[in-house]
Hints:
By secondary structure, the chain is an alpha+beta fold. Helices cover 21% and strands 29% of the residues. The strands form nine sheets. Strands 20, 21, 24, 25, 26, 27, 30, 31, 32 and 33 form a ten-stranded mixed sheet that branches. Helix 9 packs across helix 11. The model has no long low-confidence stretch (mean pLDDT 94). The site of beta-D-glucopyranose has 9 residues, from helix 3.
Amino acid sequence: MLKINEIKCESLNNPIGIDEEKPCFSFYITSDNVDTKLAAYQIRVFNNENAGDVVWDSSITHTEECISIKYNGAELCAYTRYYYEIIVWDNHNQTAISIGKNYFETGKMGEGWKAEFIGPSDKKEIKYDRVPFQMRKEFRIDRKVLSARIFASALGIYKASINGNTVGEDYFTPGWTVHEKRLQYQIYDVTDLLQNGDNAVGLTITNGWYHRYTNWLIWSPQDKWNNQICGILELRIQFDDGEIQIIKSDKDWKYGVGPIKMADFYDGETYDACEETPDWCKVGFDDKNWKNVKSNLYSKNVLCSTTNEPVRIIQRINPIAIIETPAGETVLDMGQNMVGFIEFSVSGNRGDSVILLHGEVLDKYGNFYNANLRSAKARIEYILKGDGVERFKPQFTFHGFRYVKVLNYPGILKLSNFTGCVLHSDMAKTGDFKCSNNMLNQLHSNIVWGLKGNFVDIPTDCPQRDERWGWTGDAQVFISTACSLYNSKAFYSKWLKDLAADQSSDGAVANSVPNFLFEEDGSTTTSAAWGDAACICPWTLYQYYGDKKILEDQYSSMHNWVEYIRKQGENEYLWDTDPQLGDWVALDAEEGSYTGATSKHYIATAFYAYSTSLLYKAAKVLDKESDMKEYNQLYEKIKAEFHRKYVNSFGEIKVKTQTAMALALKFDLIEKNNHKIVTKQLVELLKERNYHLSTGFVGTPYLLSALSDNGELDIAYKVLLQSDYPSWLYPLTKGATTIWEHWDGIKEDGTFWDTNMNSYNHYAYGAVGSWIYENIAGIKPDENYPGFKHFFINPKLGGDITRAGMNYTTPYGIVKINWEIKNREFYLDADIPCNSSSSVAMPNGEMHEVGSGEHKFKCEYPHQCN
Ligand code: BGC
């Protein structure tokens, strides 16, 4: 039977708050028939639930395209829920209609805000004390409410409340953006929280990303963080008689403080239950001691709708052990390095206080360790009110931890009193992998947990120490792996808007987005491989999700970045100026340096060429003919200059590092007939280290495919499967459950790399995931048919692996692959989604072109390894 699935508007299920004038729809089809393709669709959009007026009828459109179908009807009105239905026809003359209610609801669509940004009147106390403020207002309703929506945002982070209830389940709204240009607002349906008669509405705000404290970086380098925290809220109530009432944040609101004495992403939260005022947002609360807020605190022009998934509690895990350490500490082991916080129950006397400290690893003696958090205290303090069983979880902080040191817990500490709440952006999981090698399965799990922990509204470097920033280099390194595991389209698209918003007028892309790092002369701090996220990320998203709009939206950012590089230095075709971060934390770095041995200018020129090639490809997709010509020529010239400078007369690369060879091969910077020579150089270098890697952030993502694409699959497997230092699997032998920042985060003797920069949850080296999924599972996108319209199935057998499988949800549907070597035969089961096709390569060289449906293949496999 033909069915329509995963119906989305602007990449989200039934979104509330669409401000796009022409939102895009997507879906995929499934069917029991093999070789099924979409033949036509019709989308009809109505302005009410009961198929009211048709505001758009796409009419029957004959196409196989089902990604990003642009609305093309009457002008959409603000504050309106539109319902839509989709009818599809396939190539077997089957038809299907969407079931259930599919809708999108518009936000303000550019309509102004009646509310004002309000906040406490004393600027100093808010900024530095980190005490969340509660602001409130009462109002009356005297008619039947049809619907009610809260529109809210903040400089800082906020939670809204109505009549004693917290609104929504999201954390850390409005998220982190370049707030001086784009500050997202959220919309919540609060119809059910209102009551006839008197009501109360409230807003709690605190610093969040806006003011943070580190002892090594002073915020507000350019005064951009100097406003006081403030929030804005508009409650729009629609009555059944058609009238609208707006309750808005303004100077009439009052503010006070509640039980949270301190809240900070780095330092944690202090909560005094003795000072709880549970009724602060209920009718009749006595607010006579509360002060009047200040209003008009920030410009409303920067407010824009939310386009990514909110951060939520996605999973709960239970601790696996209570450890009494040699130092006499009581420590909970969560069994997994996780990101979020602990929810716990406790009973004791009024005034007792429980303290939790968070750490990622134990030291070599088995004692609690958190020195690698640097100045971040990651400390929770809960002061009991002494009222039976009390249950607590923080609201405005998160930590990265596996171990929790518990201090002063009154009574008997039981495992069942503690739960780990795992927080991250609520993206759909799309990929799962398993194989016969358990170490690789654990590595895959570590990669997934690295993603979860570093996808807290923006892609971060790490989730635990006093950093947690949107480093652009880390993001581009990991993006293909991320797209293989979770639907990361909305998440990265939102962040790329900020990348572009933060791009300086000369095109420089910040090393970290949202940006706050500037050179002394005020220019944006940038570097090759970091700034190149501007080109690599949109292109990767286009490959995985097949949506041209990503390229349309980011094209000028891509273009400006390439032009920025072009203007650096004397030679238009090289990038040979500083500062550059180089091959960050590579093992061939000099003692005391974070930068690996590969020449920084070699890396810069290689990435210049690579970004230019991607810009050329984007221009081609978008039919920008003159740019196509321009950037193809530029690419060829950079390549020629690269060759002149870095390739000797034997066709060898002069910079002799693993990273240098990997980049030359992967970015196609050398002549085809020199590939063999450079591959040989790479193999020699690996041999010198007994087939162990020495690459840093820059080279690691490309190392294995540089080998496997050039006839050295066995060596790629050898490097991947090493379990002694340095290797991907070595950290597993030290108990790692996430990816480490350093290959030797914990050394063989149990000591640590350093306290200064030693994260145990840094996803960058997890970039090997995409090699594993493309080569071991064997699913690879086809650049010419983005979004897996056509893709390759080509498991490359090697190592000791006898079995592998992956389920992966593409924009066209779910691909399932399972292969096994049994009795000298290779078996492959492949499920291809409708409207898509695949080229299947078998280990004996056979090729099969297949359409949708389940396929089984078999061939002899003489190189038996089980
Ligand atoms: C971060 C990295 C980042 C680097 C660049 C570090 O502190 O943790 O992941 O890319 O700085 O300078």
